[in-house]
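Write out a sequence, fold above all:
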Amino acid sequence: MPGKERKVVYVNLADKDEMKHYPEGIVRLIAENDWKVVNAPRPVPCEVPWAGKFRHGAFYGAGSEEKFGAAWEALDCWPVVFVTNHDIEEIVRAEAKQDESEKFLTEENIGRVAKALGYPWVEQKARGR
């Protein structure tokens, strides 16, 4: 649908609870084949399907955008983007700079701000304790 906003599903690679739903080795397979991952409210055509955490739906699929892209668009699939806390921090800092609120961001609150904005920030446990 023209002008329709496509949402993005961000998945933090450090989120062990999230990643346990993904097929073993899928991140490597995606990178090796230059595949995309999508999330949808119904099963999707793809090379590797799986069920995971409900976001736009519980159905996920990986495959070639060239091969499946038109079907994914027709099925209202949302792209899945794998991120790390570092990636999320960069996104949040860029958003804060854009709305001139960056002076309020600190190392101590970046995680809380990221979560409040809906990003999948993963708290890191202190080492050596």
Notes: The mean pLDDT is 91. Helices lie at 16-19, 26-33, 65-74, 85-98, 110-116. The first strand starts at residue 9 and ends at 12.
